[in-house]
TrEMBL record:
Protein's cellular compartments: Cytoplasm
UniProt function note: Catalyzes the conversion of epoxyqueuosine (oQ) to queuosine (Q), which is a hypermodified base found in the wobble positions of tRNA(Asp), tRNA(Asn), tRNA(His) and tRNA(Tyr).
Entry keyword annotation includes Iron: yes
Name of the protein described by the UniProt record: Epoxyqueuosine reductase
Main location as per UniProt: cytoplasm
Record-listed E.C. numbers: 1.17.99.6
PROSITE patterns for this protein: 4FE4S_FER_1, 4FE4S_FER_2
Binding site for cob(II)alamin: 62, 134, 155, 158, 169, 217, 242-243
Keyword 4Fe-4S: yes
4Fe-4S ferredoxin-type domain: residues covered: 178-209
Binding site for [4Fe-4S] cluster 1: 189, 192, 195, 249
Cofactor: cob(II)alamin; [4Fe-4S] cluster
Domain of life: Bacteria
Length: 318
């Protein structure tokens, strides 16, 4: 395939991604992530993945997309905005992360990725590939950074100068050579330590290093056993996920409201009071969270999280 074709195809893909509602699209050459290998190995050796044993699996595949997709030539990284300024009606209710206000992003984004792959096959030709939304060992942030979509901040989130960090990441790995974005975005965190200072569980153990086993998102979602007693009074009212390190990030003053109807807040979620959450039944849980990412923690997990929250804090469980 000639250079001109690669350029034209890359332009077509980026325009199609924009039409499908993706916030941004970057393209990288499918190759071994040499810089990420020692970082991932050290992070795992220090047990910063907690009970997320799946992070230990497929180490080589996490670092080389060619082991995930036969003949892989390109990694198309995509971002989907989910920012909303909507808030829970009861300020004393247990808190839920913004990304879980609406429909489960896995399904919404996967549908968009499949549409993009279909467009590629229709307008460019038959292309082999796979779509990924937290569904396989892919280092989303590393690929997004490599394609120039942003930089990885001190809170380990990908940050964009234009839109902050309230967006999902996804990938389309295909066996087609394209024109690659080779200008990574410079780090613009500077001397700022707001995310480090604000984390109530001290999960950000150093600039750019997050101990996942201490993160509130991990404790309320990934952790299946009891939440360790050391985190009592440190959850800041969060019962599902946590937005603190993003809320304090200066770059998120540039966040813009999303335009994806599926991510509009479920009215029953934002309207629940502290007492409503405390008295939540499994039937109501199944009804309200049927299409929500919150179902990941299951009813028993949500009950555990709510009961663990500090009495007299953001949620009074008495």
């Amino acid at each position: 395939m000639c250079v001109q074709s690669r350029s034209a195809n890359s332009k077509l893909i980026k325009e199609a991604a924009k039409q499908l509602g993706f916030l941004f699209c970057g393209i990288s050459k499918a190759e071994f992530l040499e810089q990420e290998a020692p970082r991932l190995e050290l992070w795992l050796k220090k047990n910063m993945h907690g009970e997320m044993q799946y992070m230990e699996n497929h180490f080589d595949k996490r670092l080389d997309p060619r082991l995930l997709v036969d003949g892989a030539k390109s990694v198309i990284s995509l971002g989907v905005n989910y920012y909303t300024d909507a808030m829970q009606a009861d300020p004393d209710a247990p808190k839920i992360s913004r990304y879980a206000y609406g429909a489960d992003y896995h399904h919404v984004i996967k549908d968009k990725l499949k549409q993009l792959l279909q467009i590629i096959n229709e307008q460019i030709g038959e292309v082999g590939g796979r779509v990924f939304v937290d569904s396989a060992p892919v280092l989303d942030k590393a690929w997004a950074k490599k394609s120039g979509m942003g930089w990885i901040g001190k809170n380990s989130n990908l940050i964009s100068k234009k839109t902050g960090s309230f967006f999902f990441l996804a990938e389309l790995i295909i066996d087609l050579e394209l024109e690659y974005d080779i200008e990574p975005t410079a780090d613009h965190c500077g001397s700022c330590t707001r995310c480090i200072d604000a984390c109530p569980t001290d999960a950000i153990v150093g600039p750019y290093v997050v101990d996942g086993s201490r993160c509130i998102s991990y404790l309320t979602i990934e952790l299946k056993n009891e939440i360790p007693a050391e985190f009592k009074d440190k959850m800041d009212g969060w019962m599902f996920g946590c937005d603190i390190c993003q809320e304090v990030c200066p770059w998120n003053r540039f966040s813009v409201l999303h335009n994806e109807p599926a991510f509009d807040p479920h009215p029953d979620i934002l309207g629940l009071t502290g007492n409503d959450w405390q008295e939540l039944t499994e039937d109501v849980f199944k009804k309200v969270f049927q299409k929500s990412a919150v179902k990941r923690t299951k009813f028993s997990g949500l009950q555990r999280n709510i009961s663990f929250l500090k009495p007299g804090g953001n949620f009074d469980s008495q």
